[in-house]
Write a structure and sequence with these properties.
- Strands 4-5-6-7 form a four-stranded antiparallel beta sheet, with no helix packed on it. A three-stranded antiparallel beta sheet has the order 1-2-3, with no helix packed on it. The protein has a three-stranded antiparallel beta sheet with strand order 8-9-10, with no helix packed on it.
- With 89 residues, it is an all-beta fold.
- A hairpin with a 3-residue loop joins strand 4 and strand 5.
């Protein structure tokens, strides 16, 4: 789950917090890249987590993120100014 500038992964059966992480900007979307990773789209960064909830990578985005799509191991980011960026997972 994501609220403002923080995300958390919670085990539903027990309520145990598996991950709690502060972010550089507000959360816009959380997407899952099939069996590979969790992608957190924030206003000005993309954070990628491994399935075991460890941090894989953080990518700064110069403009504000408008849309995020994932296909074939690539994150496609579109910004408010219609800029495009591709990030390999």
């Amino acid at each position: 789950m994501g609220v403002d500038q923080r995300i958390a992964a919670v085990e539903l059966a027990t309520g145990r917090v598996l991950l709690s992480l502060g972010l550089g900007s507000s959360v816009l979307q959380i997407k899952f890249a099939k069996e590979e990773a969790t992608v957190i789209a924030c206003e000005t960064e993309i954070t990628v987590l491994n399935l075991c909830n460890s941090l894989r990578s953080v990518h700064e985005i110069i403009d504000i993120v408008k849309q995020v799509d994932i296909a074939d191991g690539v994150i496609y980011v579109t910004t408010l100014n219609n800029g495009r960026r591709e990030i390999r997972i």
